[in-house]
Write the structure tokens for this entry.
Amino acid sequence: MTTNLTIGERVAWYRRRRGISQEVLAGLVGRTVDWLSKAENNRIELDRLSVIKSLADALDVTLGDLLAEPTLLEWTPDSGTRTVPALRSALMNYRQLTPLLGVATEGEPTSLDELSRNVAEVWDAYQESRYGFATRRLPLLLADALIAAQSYQGRERERAHELTAMTYQGAAMVLTKLGETDLAWIAADRGLAAAQQSGNPVVTGSLFRSVAHCLLSNGRFDAAVQLVGDAGEYLRPGLQEPTPELLSIYGTLFLAGSMASARADDRETTRTFLDEAKRAADRLGTDANHVWTAFGHPDERRHSPSSNGGRAGRHAGRGRPRPADRHDRTADGTPYAAQPRSSPGPQRLQPNGRRTREGP
């Protein structure tokens, strides 16, 4: 009903539905009635995410309700005609989630090397902004990963759980890009459970960061900050003799936390998290793509959301964090400056709720 309205008009629509006057809403967000009136009538732009979040909280709606970002994924040869609904069904399929009901997952397990290549293919598609292709492949890939996790034993089962976790993380990244933040949260949470079963701290740290970014995308800044702090404590014992992979994941985890604390207007925590990211980058000492080598992927050069941990940390250590209303990061929370050149540039919210590119 509100999809054709600007952000300001949606604020007015939800305010009236809540039976709140302009005076009351303005007071709740610490603004003047004149400011709110101008915002609702499109005489000023609502382009700061922190301001939109405060309005959403006061109106008891989500950020997505006010932003009304389009979630329709166009049909292309890459995507086919089964897109987000098929991925939603895969995420909601209880038969693939629990052995408690005694329902065996059907099918022969895919070899782990082939499964690894398929997961890498989806992650590469994400980096290349081929979201239709990734969305089409993910439902079947999730099924294959879950069958593998149930079928293999010993170290092979651990590796299957690692690949399952990274598949869920790929789903979370793509769904966040498509504006399906609630589904992304489910995927990241399921991925974290699989990562913990793998026993691999690098993969677990990667999924911690994915969950943190999903909280960030849903406007739950304080929860994201708390998660990053707790996840850092969980990973910290491994830093006494860390692998490069762990340092890379650890540093970019705190980058995600710094974004959340900046949006929560917590300057002290932002600086603390940025400093922690920089320390990890200084110890790493070089730009690197590490996440796939953490569980045996044959190509260290493959891009990943935890890629370029050294560069990301050094980027974080320079100057102050960027303004909270700038969309200058990828779906997993890593700044664009730390990503391959093919990543899309920063974006800015427009009054109609859409985003436009800034810069090349």
The two ends are 34 Å apart (CA to CA). Residues 292-360 have pLDDT under 50 and may be disordered.
